[in-house]
Design a protein that fits this description.
This protein is mainly β and 525 residues long. It has one helix and 33 strands. 1% of the residues lie in helices and 42% in strands.
Length: 525
């Protein structure tokens, strides 16, 4: 991790007869980082709170933020989980020496840079005296010593933003998407002034006052990944040659040490017919889908795993006999793509569609309908902005993890969002939901489906009494389609609905052991 030393120096200057001091800022950077050109392949990382969409305001982790203090009675840390902020503060009950400070620093993970960012912040600074002035500041590196200029009471800046409402418009600070080679963002609270100076206390003992503070309630950081994933170990029937029929597999290994391996697609004759996320990384690698620029959005700086081994299945029966082009495309979280395979497959037998992709087919004879099939067969689109390249985000309302443990009889909820490749919400779409109970031999049964709202969002309340199950949600982009374009899988674990009292716990051969359901109504404990 790169380290940066910052010294805020407040220069005193006589102004008229009253001799008031004016605050100026000098930042001495301990490192010099060489700039580089930023690529278009980027994604959003949210800190402290989710700033947009149906989950706006929910606490988010603060990956890659470090905290530092230089001097006593300074505070730096993460209070986001409890509804607070990422904070740097100077205690107001005591005096402080010039040059002491607290800071929070977000450092982009190795191999990534920052193209731009928006933060929602509040800062305040108490009264100054000559050569001692509480001051707060925001900077990025390499870059200017201050984004907005130093905030200090003697500069006419006792505070900036609103402490009452984290998302108040006055709290927004935006640095555009033009940055090059930037690797860190830092906000701080410090005692500025001049050598030998001292910042005065702003309140008496027990007042709980702060002389300087910089609180960040939420951050949206645009991270750039210029490196595509790598693919190797491609094997399986789809690439082995010969004539194919039915479901066939292609297996491979993929790696990306920057944003991580996101997912992949199989394209037949230029049409995407299979697309999925390889490993959701317990929900971290599922895009929140709440930005309007078409980029993915996550709440972790490195959302996806650095390496995966995966298998994709292709139903060759949906294609006409003969040769078809096949491409395997792998992409990382930032949208960089790598071609894992580009070749030709040969399909044998008689096609279930009775025609080549793109030609007209009678819907009565088409058993496999989906991307690449003629629209005359498929029917109208499933929702506004319906797309063959859709992303179905799904998670439990109480956790971002794929697996959720609940108590028997509870009413649990799943929520998420359906978006197209441009990041637009697909509204009014019908989603299918299926449950497969966890016991051996259980049959998959449909649950009540639901329709997405005007933003593409949705929420499903599971029926009471649902047992431990695997839940599958799926989206078909057109009416009558049999090929899915987006799926999501979740797991529910449910504690048993009964409690047993066992007596005795130790018995000899021939003695009885009694099991009593102590959860049954009327049982006397």
């Amino acid at each position: 991790m790169r380290r940066m030393s910052v010294e805020a120096v407040v220069m005193g200057r006589r102004m008229g007869r009253r001799g008031r001091s004016r605050v100026a800022l000098l930042l001495l950077l301990g490192v010099c980082l060489a700039p580089s050109l930023a690529a278009a392949n980027s994604y959003h990382d949210f800190l402290c709170r989710i700033p947009y969409g149906p989950q706006a305001g929910r606490a988010a982790p603060a990956d890659d933020v470090t905290y530092a203090t230089n001097g006593g009675f300074f505070y730096a840390g993460d209070g986001c989980e409890g509804g607070g902020a990422l904070y740097a503060a100077m205690d107001g009950e005591v005096t402080h020496l010039y040059g002491t400070s607290a800071s929070n620093t977000f450092t982009a993970p190795t191999g990534l840079t920052i193209a731009g960012f928006t933060i929602w912040r509040y800062e305040s600074d108490a009264a100054s005296k000559p050569y001692g002035s509480p001051a707060s500041n925001l900077l990025y590196s390499p870059g200017p010593p201050s984004v907005q200029g130093l905030c200090a009471e003697i500069e006419g800046c006792p505070y900036r933003g609103s402490q009452a409402n984290p998302f108040d418009p006055s709290n927004v600070v935006t640095v555009g998407d033009h940055l090059s080679g930037v690797t860190l963002i830092q906000w701080s609270a410090a005692c500025g002034g001049g050598p030998g100076g001292e910042c005065p206390a702003s309140g008496g003992p027990g007042s709980g006052s702060l002389s300087s503070q910089y609180d960040v309630y939420a951050a949206d950081i645009d991270l750039v990944d210029n490196t595509p994933p790598t693919v190797g170990g491609v094997s399986g029937p789809l690439v082995a040659g010969g004539t194919l029929s039915g479901q066939q597999a292609i297996s491979f290994n993929a790696a990306d040490g920057q944003s991580g391996v996101y997912g992949g697609s199989l394209l037949v004759d230029g049409h995407t017919v299979v697309s999925r996320i390889f490993d959701t990384n317990e929900g971290a690698c599922q895009s929140l889908g709440v930005t309007s620029d078409g980029q993915r959005s996550f709440e972790h700086a490195q959302p996806c795993k650095a390496s995966v081994s995966a298998v994709l299945m292709l139903n060759t029966s949906q294609f006409t006999p003969g040769a078809h082009s096949l491409e395997l495309i792998i992409d990382d979280a930032a949208g960089n793509q790598a071609v894992g395979y580009n070749g030709t497959i040969t399909v044998g037998g008689s096609s279930s569609t009775g025609s080549s992709m793109g030609s007209t087919t009678d819907s009565a004879t088409a058993s496999t309908i989906g991307p690449g099939s003629p629209l005359a067969v498929r029917g109208p689109g499933n929702g506004a902005n319906a797309s063959d390249e859709a992303m179905l985000n799904a998670h439990w309302t109480r956790t971002r993890k794929v697996t959720f443990t609940s108590r028997y009889g509870a009413t649990d909820q799943i929520t998420g969002r359906l978006t197209n490749a441009a990041g637009q919400g697909i509204s009014g779409a019908v989603l299918d939901v299926y449950e497969t109970p966890a016991y051996e031999g259980a049959r998959t049964v449909p649950l009540a489906g639901m329709r997405t709202d005007p933003t593409g969002g949705w929420t499903l309340s599971l029926p009471r009494g649902v047992s431990s199950s695997a839940l599958r949600l799926q989206y078909r982009s057109h009416v009558n389609d049999t090929v899915l374009v987006a799926t999501a899988m979740l797991t529910l674990r449910v504690y048993a609905g009964i409690a047993l009292r066992i007596a005795p716990r130790v018995a000899s051969v021939g003695r009885s052991i009694h099991f009593n359901d102590v959860s049954a109504p009327g049982f006397r404990r």
